[in-house]
Structures are given as structure tokens and as C-alpha cells.
Amino acid sequence: MTVRAILDLKGRDVVTVAPEKTLAEAAELLSANKIGAVVVVTGERVSGILSERDIVKAVSRGGAAALESRVADSMTSTVVTCSPHDTMAALMNRMTAGRFRHLPVIENGKLAGIVSIGDVVKHRLAEIERESSALRDYIMTA
Ligand code: AMP
């Protein structure tokens, strides 16, 4: 299964935030959308990614005042991305190697979706279920 197939099922909407917003505003976005990361954009350009872990780190270092600091100060600027042609196995490798749970999708140089580890696990489980049921059918009819 490819990233494109996952996006066809889950949709291509991405929650984004501007780098000059505060961590409190970003936290509100995460909570309202029930997600774990927002992509930071400057105009149409992806300039970073901010996950719940970055907010927790900032608060543990600077206390509640850190919530008034800018997203740009806590985001990860070197964003690892994927393309619609990537396979689920490639995504799992990239997430495991980078120790993160979100991969923005870039198509023709533009943000075209986001895949989380939750999406990968959900689709991989469905794939395993389909494979084992095909195997069961094969054994029953052999
Ligand atoms: P996560 O596991 O996605 O909550 O993120 C853990 C850490 O990795 C945080 O510091 C994020 O900013 C960073 N991160 C998340 N996704 C990516 C990504 N695709 N590329 C680079 N860094 C990321």
C-alpha cells in the first residue's frame, strides 16, 4: 500500500500554523483537532514541524511562560517528508530511523497531506488481516 492510497482514504487536509504564533495557540490547534503535530508553514513553504513533544520539552525547560514563546523557537526545522509514491514499509523505516511519528507528504513541491504512525498502524493491521484471510480461504479450498 502506498501513501497515495492512505491519503485517498483519510483525506489530504493538513493542520498548519505560522512560525510567529505562540506555543499556546499551537497547543489549542492540537487539542481542537485531536492531533499530535502541526506543520509550520511560511506562506506555502513548509518551514518546520511542531509536535506535542516539542511543547512538553519547552514547558519543562521554561515553565508556563514558554507557552507565550514562538512556534519558530521550538519547532524542528529540518523536516523529513514523504511522497505519494512511498510504500508503507518505507514510511515505517523512516519513522523508526528518525524516532518521530509524523511525515508530511510533499507532491510537486507542495504540502499534500500528512501521515501519522496511527495511520500506518491502522492500514498495516488491515493489510495483515486481508493477507491472513486470503491464506485461510486458500487453505480451506485447497
Ligand atoms: P513526534 O514523534 O512526531 O511527536 O515528534 C518527535 C520529535 O520529532 C519532535 O521534536 C518533532 O518536532 C520531530 N518531528 C516530528 N516529525 C518530524 C519529521 N517528519 N521530520 C523531522 N522531525 C520531525
Topology (SSEs and partners):
Layout: H1 3-10, E1 16-17, H2 23-33, E2 37-42, E3 45-51, H3 52-62, H4 71-74, H5 88-98, E4 102-107, E5 110-116, H6 117-141
Parallel strand pairs: 1-2
Antiparallel strand pairs: 2-3, 4-5
Question: What does the model show?
Answer:
The protein has one domain: Roll (CBS-domain). The model has no long low-confidence stretch (mean pLDDT 96). It is 49% helix and 20% strand. It has 142 residues and is an alpha+beta fold. It has six helices and five strands. The chain starts with a helix and ends with a helix. Adenosine monophosphate binds next to strand 3, helix 3 and strand 4.
- What structural class results from the helix and strand content? alpha+beta
Cα radius of gyration in angstroms: 18 Å
- Report the total helices: 6
Helical content stands at: 40-55%
Number of DSSP strand runs? 5
Structure at a glance:
49% of the residues lie in helices and 20% in strands. The chain is built from 6 helices and 5 strands, in the order H-E-H-E-E-H-H-H-E-E-H. Bound molecules: adenosine monophosphate (AMP).
